């Protein structure tokens, strides 16, 4: 999916690539729709819920939590396909209303977490929401551009968001 988009996610080629029968595939999934639903659910959990839980549970200041979050796309770009998967899912959402709803929910959840940290830093609601949007756009932009950034530059971008 990260390489070729949602249209490349097909039962027969996947079964062949994984060296399993189509029958074995259908043992685990009711069909392609079930596979796609599980893909989007797993992405939501791994890329949002698990990260927010981990950062919320860490003994970090709000600014340290935001920095850890901000650095994730740069770290993910170093791993093959992680940023590409997010982009592929966002592309998929342009053609699938149910996936768009998941994307909207994920973005709202992420923005609420970011805004909560800005509030904890003393910003009022409006300012926290504005800073959260700017922060999120910068963070996502770094991932979408996919350009290697040195850590000093990433840190300067992060500091400019406060």
Automatic annotation (TrEMBL):
Record bears the keyword DNA-binding: yes
Keyword vocabulary terms for this entry: DNA-binding
Residue runs in coiled coils: none
Membrane-spanning ranges: none
Presence of the UniProt keyword DNA-binding in the record: yes
All residue ranges annotated as the HTH tetR-type domain in the record: 1-47
DNA-binding region, residue range(s): 10-29
GO molecular function terms listed in the Swiss-Prot or TrEMBL record: DNA binding
Pfam family, one: TetR_N
InterPro entries, per the entry: Homeodomain-like_sf, HTH_TetR
Protein known as: HTH tetR-type domain-containing protein
Highest classification ranks of the organism: Bacteria, Pseudomonadati, Pseudomonadota, Gammaproteobacteria, Alteromonadales
């Amino acid at each position: 999916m990260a390489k070729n988009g949602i249209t490349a996610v097909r039962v027969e080629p996947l079964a062949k690539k994984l060296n399993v029968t189509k029958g074995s595939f259908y043992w685990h999934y009711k069909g392609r729709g079930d596979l796609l639903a599980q893909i989007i659910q797993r992405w939501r959990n791994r890329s949002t819920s698990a990260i927010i839980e981990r950062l919320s549970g860490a003994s970090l200041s709000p600014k340290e939590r935001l920095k850890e979050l901000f650095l994730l796309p740069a770290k993910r770009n170093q791993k093959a396909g992680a940023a590409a998967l997010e982009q592929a899912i966002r592309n998929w959402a342009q053609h699938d209303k149910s996936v768009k709803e998941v994307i909207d929910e994920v973005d709202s959840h992420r923005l609420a977490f970011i805004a909560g940290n800005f509030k904890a830093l003393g910003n009022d609601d409006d300012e926290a929401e504005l800073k959260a949007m700017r922060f999120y756009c910068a963070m996502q932009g770094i991932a979408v551009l996919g350009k290697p950034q040195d850590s000093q530059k990433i840190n300067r971008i992060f500091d400019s968001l406060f």
